[in-house]
Design brief:
The chain is of the alpha+beta class and about 200 residues long. The chain folds into 2 domains: about 70 residues, no CATH class; about 120 residues, Sandwich (Immunoglobulin-like), CATH 2.60.40. It binds zinc ion (ZN).
Length: about 200
């Protein structure tokens, strides 16, 4: 009779049990408070679901490494490709907002994944004999984006992108540089940038 009782009880419990997927989501904290509350209540009285969660826990413990995508896997790396442009700066889209000088060399234009990059090298008015870069990145979320410039000697300078996608480097020596624009989930690499 005790046996029968137990199996009846078991059958009763299982009828009201949440399905495995719901239990799993509950365990991972993916359910809303509203959805989670009755399951927490159920778990307190249901040995079957408690056991199922314990099994799930053991399983997740073994596979935790593969379930956590690493940061590097989520970052898209875009290699910037130079777009040939005419010799004259015509303004308009792709030109940094503050590039008002009438220089006779246009900005360097690059295409990188979903982004477009424009770099204008000018004389740095505050540092005679030195150069500045006025840059503009379009086609990306501009929040939390850092632009880093690496000199030939490995020296690194970093600035952040303004909400309009503009950035500036000043007081630069001539020579080859590498420029990297890094956002939360992408990185744009400009490897051939020579400041003359
Ligand atoms: Zn249950």
């Amino acid at each position: 009779m005790a046996h029968l009782d137990d199996s009846l009880k078991a059958a009763f419990y299982r009828i009201t049990c949440p399905d495995s997927a719901t239990l799993g989501n509950f365990h991972l904290g993916l359910l809303s408070d509203e959805a989670a509350a009755p399951i927490a209540k159920h778990l307190a009285i249901c040995p079957h679901c408690t056991q199922e969660i314990a099994q799930l826990e053991a399983f997740l413990g073994e596979t935790a490494v593969t379930l956590q995508p690493s940061t590097t896997e989520r970052i898209k790396v875009w290699i910037a490709k130079r777009i040939p442009t005419g010799g004259h700066s015509r303004g308009g889209v792709g030109t940094p907002a503050f590039a008002v000088r009438g220089g006779d060399t246009g900005p360097l234009m690059y295409e990188a994944g979903e982004a477009q990059l424009s770099l204008e090298v000018q004389d740095d008015p505050e540092h005679p004999g030195r150069k500045s870069i006025l840059g503009l990145v379009l086609g990306i979320e501009t929040e939390h984006v850092t632009v880093r410039l690496f000199g030939e000697d490995g020296a690194e300078t970093a600035v952040t992108l303004d909400p309009g996608g503009n950035f500036t480097f000043t007081n630069l020596a001539t020579g080859p540089y590498q420029l990297i624009v890094s956002g939360p989930d992408f990185e744009i690499q400009v490897s051939e940038l020579t400041i003359a």
